[in-house]
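User: Predict the complex.
Assistant: Input components as received:
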Amino acid sequence: MTSPEEFRPFPAPLDVAELSAKTADLRRLMIEVAHRTGGAYLAQALSGIDLLTAIAYRFARGDGARPDHPDRDRLLLSPGHYALALYVVLADRGYFDRDLLWTFKDDGSPLELATHRGTVPGVEASGGSLGQVLSLGVGMALAARRRGQGHRVFVMMSDGEQDEGQIWEAAASAAHYRLGNLVATIDANGFQVDGPCAQVMDMEPLADKYRAFGWDAIECDGNDMAAVVGAFQALCAPGRRRPGIVIGRTVRGRGISFMEGNPAFHYARLDPGLRDRAMADLEGGTDAV
Amino acid sequence: MTLTTPTQSLLLARPSAAFGPYKQALIALGEARDDVVVLGADLGTSTEIDGFQARFPDRYFNVGAAEQNEIDIAVGMSFEGDIPFVHSFGVFLTRRAYEQVCVQVAMHRANVKLVGVIPGLTSRLGPTHQAIEDLALMRTLPGMTVLDPADATEITQMVPAMAELDGPVYARMMRREVPVLLDPERYRFRIGQAVPLRSGTDVLLVTTGLMLGPVLAAADLLAARGVSAAVLHCPTIKPLDVPAVLDLAATCRAVVTAENHLVAGGLGSSVAEVLGERLPLPLERVGIRDTFAVPGSPEYLFARYGLDAQGVVEAALRAVARRVQA
């Protein structure tokens, strides 16, 4: 028997096969929300959902029934435009009523186009302005250590926002303070608003840059669940004294054949025909992804 | 005309000076509350947080010369229940990190206290270091409390009051030798409360921060010329004590504001907004006009830009003359 007050961070952490099935479910849910609510920033939500799923269903301890529990791991989304990906995860994990998803970006809905702290449980940061949330994560990790708390702080970033100078202030401070309780990830889908990152502002090699700043950095295929889980597992080992970052190489629109690499779907509106094609791509779960 | 009023006793008969009142107040706060943490940006001694550092090293974080990171780290700490006091020179907290202050501190009503040292024309390093528009920048942010203390007595009482208030605060801070004008035995600082220091019937002088001394001197000079000046001290720029301003303005029918800041956006603008909406009266604003200041000693600069007793007297005479014409 468990009391309502008890903190139950996971029903059970998912293994790689279960995580892969979960991302397929979440992709279908995002497609359905985008279809029913008139559109969403889907390209990046689809590229980053595997990284986010791995964190939320395996590594970050959280309980939708106890969203403010002090022992929870903090999961911070930096690029607020990935909102839909976070919302479907939170809804699926019981942070709020799943039906709220169909109000996505309606006037007056708490599910805004970009994430803002205080709107729904589980959204712990406001990410509409890029490049700031890693600093918040540093502050939270410092506060946790000062209080002797054992939880981790996870920060999900995009590659485009690595242009922001504040990211590198934060990166330096995280290593300086030896924040082994801070684990970041970059959804490196290679694109920012004005085009390919390599053309707009080339910040590569990102892994070498983070290593030079004192981080442990692991690059992997960010849409390959086994690789993603392996990378986070290494960086979530106990007793670490360096911040860690998973740089996940991903594909925009991943999982939907007509969206992959197609800039027309940066902000996607899906009519019934496109929705059905997308769902057909996702049939069979992991095999189609 | 009488110069002696009940509230005049809030002022010391003989003004003096104190050294480093903020440094001592911050240490006292650290002793009183273990949820207070202190952040600095490579200006530890210059912002007088080195005493706190020595006393509470586990609650002191020097993030280097990186104010944007400093402020957002503090916001992250505040989300975990800490009360961060964040330090740099006022220019760097407000100009350089304005967006961080806006969308992380103000937007979340984060319990972060921003302490901007060397206000207005008190820096010798010229316009890069002179915070002359910080009050304007901070005042326009929704929910931000904005403070500009006048002396060491006020600083000593302001620091614990900042920690008591649940919400974001920007406070200007003086360092090293700071005047003592208010009687620590009688004066009680409260956020949002303006303090009548002198009553009068011709012109109301509204002052904040370091202008208190010159304004009190100006009131004496005006009295010698037969002009009765009331003095209202406003250590809280926002929220402005509107009832106090209106009550005293109504007794005088002309108003002068004085601040160590641009005339745009700070105390003068705040009072003008209130008077314009509620009690239109002749108004003169003493402060820096639409210009950056040159480098120099505070004494030289305050005189050069008219932030002195003479400047206040001239403004008061202009305001009173306009009243007579009207």
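Residues 205 and 285 of chain B are 10 Å apart (CA to CA).
Let me know if you want any component modeled separately.
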